[in-house]
Amino acid sequence: MPGLLIKELPPELHARLKQEAARHHRSMTRQALMLLEQALQGGSAKPRVAPPEPVDMGTLHDSEWVYRAAREGRE
Description:
By secondary structure, the chain is mainly alpha-helical. Helices cover 51% and strands 0% of the residues. It is built from 3 helices and no strands. It has helices at 11-23, 28-40, 63-74.
């Protein structure tokens, strides 16, 4: 199988590739191949969607609250 050597890869790009590979449980080589295949097929990676912001429900459930709730549920 032919190989490819990429010289002078910018450190920022290397770090991003490494993070994405880890996030998808792939090696950096497999991640790079997947991205190349997508780019050459005209498809693009899924658009990044930011996770929703946490919602403040106005309560803090500490261990005492959990203990009381468990005891109340048994009575």
